[in-house]
Description:
848 residues; extended; transport; V-type_ATPase_116kDa_su_euka; four-stranded antiparallel β-sheet; 24 helices; five-stranded antiparallel β-sheet
Amino acid sequence: MGSLFRSETMCLAQLFLQAGSAYECLSALGERGLAHFRDLNPSTSVFQRKYVGEVKKCEEMERILGYLVQEIKKADILLPEGEMTPPAPLLKQMLEMQEQLQKLEAELREVTKNKEKLRKNLLELTEYTHMLRVTRSFVRRTEFESCLQTNYEEFPSLENDPLLDYNCMHRLGAKLGFVSGLIHRTKIEAFEKMLWRVCKGYTILSYSELDECLDDPDTGEPTRWICFLISYWGEQIGQKVKKICDCYHCHIYPYPNTPEDHQTVMEGLQVRIQDLHIVLHKTEDYLRQVLCKASESIYTWDVQVKKMKAIYHVLNLCSFDVTNKCLIAEVWCPVADLPNMRRALEEGSRESGASVPSFINTIPTTETPPTLIRTNKFTVGFQNIVDAYGIGNYREVNPALFTIITFPFIFAVMFGDCGHGLLMFLFGLFLVTFEKHPRLMRSQDEIMKMFFEGRYIILLMGLFSVYSGLIYNDCFSKSLNIFGSRWNVSQMFEQSVWKPEDLKNQHLMLNSAVAGVFRGAYPFGIDPIWSLASNRLSFLNSFKMKMSIILGVIHMTFGVVLGGFNHLYFKQKYNIYLVFIPQLLFLLSIFGYLGFLIVFKWLACTASDPEPAPSILIHFINMFLFPAHEEKHLFFQGQLIVQRLLLAIAMLSVPVLLFGKPLYLYWLNHGRKGFGPYRNGYQLVRKESEEELSLLRTHDIEEGASSLDNRHKKEEKEEFIFIDVFMDQAIHTIEYCLGCVSNTASYLRLWALSLAHAQLSEVLWAMVLRIGLRVDASYGILTLVPLSAIFMVLTIFILLVMEGLSAFLHAIRLHWVEFQNKFYKGEGYKFTPFSFQGISLHFNKEIT
């Protein structure tokens, strides 16, 4: 609890690492995660540091590993993942690993290249086979049409018939040629028009769509292809046809001149396709064997390369001594972990076989240490809520310890329904029970990952919601009669107060003064009879509104008290008298008194009193207005004197807050020169005087000016400026005084959200489930089942998810703004140790 209440005590230390054992020492430190390294070469570029070459080698190996993972996933081979991470490899193993990875990459690229070349050749031969099969039907159809034609002109007119036949062109000395191939189906129309316009009709185009889809060589996707055969006359026309085919990215294949050649080519293609299938199958088997063997070591290689890269990054933060034989590093380390640091350095020196061991020395400093809060799987979620506001200053009070209880409680006040809380508790219990399940631990879904990391928060929010729901006596908008109502209606008839004909009146009021009607308070929570009352909403609104004010005042007062603990720890006694006590008096004199009136009215005023109870609102307003006539109905004797005294205390606290601290600091810096030296306002003439230095230390202890107060200041002190200190204190005073009013009103959101949740739950019950329950019994089951399903779905998505998220955000706001700003600055920086625990234990879904 001590570590969770305040951050760990830190120290600045220097590590003296021998050049031959620095790698092993940092590997041992990385496994333990004990040191926060500082950059001793801030002015040196990243590309000019000592170990930049080793970092580039690690990046090259990461690139190779990424390529291997990509190929393994393409082959649908399962990537192994382990729970334990292998240690960082030795330096000699690094060279062996690099050489092995380079050989494996070269082999895979060569095999993959051959595989793609074989696949491309197979695709070309398949296309050629389909083209020959389809174009053969074109030639047969053309021959059949030529036999049917009996009359034709020997020299047809070019004006009347631009399509010249073979005999005409043969007489003119032209040579008949063929171009055949495949083209995309989407390009055939434009291709046909272009042929007609460029060749002016001196071509004959025949085409047909293939029955099956073939892979596109460029994209690898199945594509519909058109097989075409172009007949042309003349070499010039042939050149134009080939250029047009190239422009439309047609796949051109040679066309046999005779049927015999056609048959010979078809038979040769079939043999070559069968051979290619055999060779391709063997190539794929060999590639899969190589990938399977690589997948067995890919996890170890990946983790080891990441660890090596991290070690060399940290080595680049170190500086060399004059002899270039020793590396010097500065680290922040928890004081409690110094023995572990020394053991890690000894282990690294022993593994490297160095003759001179590495060692650590602590050094004094006035710089601000980082903040380290040790957490576990239960407290880490609540600590993340606090850290989202800001990392705490070094050694100041950590709100996460109290947030473990206050956060789920405040959430439950707004989400008070034991039915909904039970569902949330069961969901959190499921996540906690199966927290070690691999699918939950390694889930990459953002929403599921968020739920899993906050599983203990959800568990406590559900548990506290069940408690607050029992207090409100609210379960799915219905009351539970557990202990039996303490109101007895039958006594109203037995005492002859009511008559049977009075039951026609819709507005009957129970009289607690009648004997036997009210039999005492309900044992736990709200009496279930209020669910039948017409003024139920007014009663609950009054109760929840007053309860919200009481909880808010207690919460804010607790925050101010924690601020006093900070002043005591940092030995700032003047803040106790000039800040803490005035703040506490101001808050309690006004809003603490308001909470007292609420509790006093609950205890002192009952329904059996003959006189009406005084109004808290009227008395609280008159506390500031000082009316001319005195109130007749007071809560207690001497109430007016107490109110005036409390108001006077609150008014006197404001000038103390405003002027006290600035005037005191001004007196320390300027008004005490005649009494003794002070380090901010007086410069010593004899700096080497030990007596004066001891007097200064004694003065620091008496006045509370410890080194922690000056950790944000530089060694050369700035001149004290009174107006700056006064303006800063004035801003804080105005913010605190006005914030007490606004923050108290802000806690009314507890009442507002609780009312909204209860009313929304009641509306959902009335408009969905009650309809199914009121239907006739013969048809009720047909409507009750779907309506129950709708009710469950709406309950989960609206009341649990949406309303739960709303209450969660409002609870965060109340902790950040209303509670933490009373004592928590959040201006520190986090302790980020050099650790291998942050290395991912699983591969990403996508490798770029």
